[in-house]
Write a structure and sequence with these properties.
Length: about 140
């Protein structure tokens, strides 16, 4: 296995719904492990929560996520974003349409001063996404 770097998102009880949403938007194979799947030691209310989830897409994206462990506070912030970029405009516009649906668009997906098509949105789970479509010469 090669070394990889990928986003790992934290949620407060809706990691399963978020990962299923991302699978619908990006495609791929989703694996979900709940706290309860690893024995009877799951704290009350955590048996069905996600201890570790991973989405691997046909385009080579890997996105991991989990519900915060028992006893930890969920404090979502805006100090990160997930960036999708490339030159396949049709594929990237499709991701944009699905990820921005039900969310908030901060920068519409349109041509920018640097020449590429770029947009930024926050999805319905509070995760910020940036999409950059490189203009082919």
């Amino acid at each position: 296995m090669t070394t990889r770097l990928n986003p790992y998102l934290s949620f407060s009880g809706d990691a399963k719904q978020a990962l299923e949403f991302y699978q619908q938007a990006l495609g791929g194979d989703l694996s979900l492990n709940t706290y309860g799947a690893f024995g009877s030691d799951a704290p009350p209310g955590f048996a069905d929560r996600i201890m570790h989830g991973m989405l691997e897409t046909p385009s080579g994206f890997t996105l991991m996520a989990a519900d915060n462990p028992p006893g930890t506070e969920h404090a979502p912030g805006n100090g990160f974003a997930v960036s999708l970029s490339g030159d396949d405009a049709e594929e990237l516009r499709g991701y944009w349409d699905k990820l921005s649906a039900g969310g908030t668009v901060a920068v519409p997906l349109e041509k920018q001063m640097w020449g590429d098509v770029f947009g930024m949105c926050t999805d319905r789970f509070g995760v910020t996404w940036m999409v950059n479509i490189t203009e082919q010469s």
